[in-house]
Amino acid sequence: MIPKSDLRKPRRDVAVVGAGMTVFARRLQETGKEMAWEAAKQALDQAGLTLDDVDAVIVGTAPDAFDGVHKKGEWLLDGAGGSGKPFMRVFTGGGTAVMTPIVGWWHVASGLFDTVLVVNEEKMSSVRPHAQSAFAHIWDPILDRPLKPNLVWIFAMEMQRYMWTYNVRYEDIALVAVKNKRNAVGHPCAQLADPDITLEDVLNSEPLALPVRRLDISPPSDGAAAVVLTREEIAYELTDAPVFIEGVGWCIDTTMWTNRDLAFPKFVARAAKMAYDMAGIKDPRKEIDIAEPYDPFDYKELQHLEALGLAEPGEAAILTREGKTQRDGELPVCPSGGLLGVGNPIAATLGIKIGELYWQLSRQAGPRQVKKDARTGVAQAWGDLMQFSSVVVMRRR
Amino acid sequence: MAHEPRTQTHNDERFGPPPNPQGRRLSAQEEAQLPHIIAKPRARYAWAAGIAISAFLEGLKRGKILGRKCVGCGRVLVPPRMFCERCFRPTDEWVELPGTGVVETFSVSYIDTDANRVEEPILVGTIALDGAPPHCGFMHYFGEVSPEELHIGMPVEPVWKPEGERVGSILDIRYFRPRGR
Prior knowledge:
The complex is a heterodimer of chains A (397) and B (181).
Chain A: E1 14-21, H1 32-47, E2 56-60, H2 72-80, E3 87-90, H3 96-109, E4 115-123, H4 131-135, H5 151-166, H6 170-183, H7 199-203, E5 207-210, E6 212-213, E7 222-231, H8 232-238, E8 243-252, H9 266-279, H10 284-287, E9 290-292, H11 298-307, H12 316-321, H13 338-341, H14 350-361, E10 376-383, E11 388-395
Parallel strand pairs in A: 2-3, 2-4, 9-10
Antiparallel strand pairs in A: 1-7, 1-8, 4-7, 5-6, 8-11, 10-11
Chain B: H1 8-11, H2 28-32, H3 50-61, E1 65-69, E2 76-77, E3 83-84, E4 89-90, E5 93-97, E6 101-111, E7 117-129, E8 137-141, E9 155-160, E10 173-178
Antiparallel strand pairs in B: 1-2, 1-5, 3-4, 6-7, 6-9, 7-8, 9-10
């Protein structure tokens, strides 16, 4: 048998040296291309580079159905700085947010390129009457669509199963929404920051598909985000505080979602194991200082913390109730404000996952800076028909 | 230096203040102020049901729920597949299931497919079917049950449309109801 290659030995070390993002909001004035340009330029400015320094460009953006145009990646090309360069578009549903930096990482780690610009964009306000009308096309056309589903149903069913299996109280789950919407107050791009939100506000918000209520969900949004990746030697020329990508992992489960136990996302755990092995992390609870798990719904933050090995199944709600996941807590979780607070322009949440870890670990997060001296962090995204996950471990050396 | 993303567009006087920074739905008047094009792409599709699901739908028409057995892993696959994605081999035989099962999970939905509000909640969930492996089945509605009564683990059975109205669709089952009701 041919031996497998060693995942822990990519050829070159890769660092993040700049990040940028636009305000997340309903932005009818700008095209996606204009937003992509805004984010890409910011990231290059922060890195102290120009487009001439960029060897290749990766673009992440979600279904063409949101825009009603095909070849959406190519459509964004000019704004992302990709014309005349090696360029590719990546789409793995909501997991795109953390998948494009993984693709960017292997472009550099492999030795093919020195510096790569990663740009993610989403504009969800174009589709009428609601982004839900495009989301409806995710369902199986033969067995699911005749039942006229709403995408929120699937999360309601997953949340219900999660609560039942691990005996988790809704009141504790709702605390995640309170925490993240408050955290977002320090974020200049935030759409739903609310310094005064209370647990009662969430518990009494409009019922959508119970157990999911209005304030359990992140809002649809428009926006863009970008990061610059480069190899170690160039990174140290540019900055004293590069943040290295130490481990990457991704995994997808079957599309037959009615054949899975929805309580625990095994595919997230597998993606995390791949990333932790590469980063040499043996005990994530001891070695991870800060986490940006994907939080499109409040219960997802908890489920993801558990699958990332940062809590036992069912325990993340207790950590939340005890305040340990607050910005000044033992394990700050979503100090950015997350998707729940900053907004959820799907692929563009790159800026509040990888972008936030970069700013936090290089201590540039300003009013959002966590109290502890965080050196190692994990970011994770999740998507498709609740079946895909991407995980990145980052470290300031 | 702290990260201060530029909010140039929002401060740019050529565009004026953002009309909708919080993501609320724009009024017709607000939308009319911004240059844009309304388009209705015309596309229609004919989706093949496939070999396995065509037989499954034919079974529904006859009032039967069919699965497909893989002797490699011993699972009865519902919805059926002609191949087992785990063993990566062809599945072996058709199996008729009793149709009964338990509620695997559910939601009480106050929104429809386009996110419009509905007065009477839609009771929807997945059914773990008897004769299939744990957690395996499909999505459907629940009926003849109140939202308060409905719970995970509740034994349920299908309520079929009359034979003459069945067309070979998942909707040949009206809904699942508590068993013995």
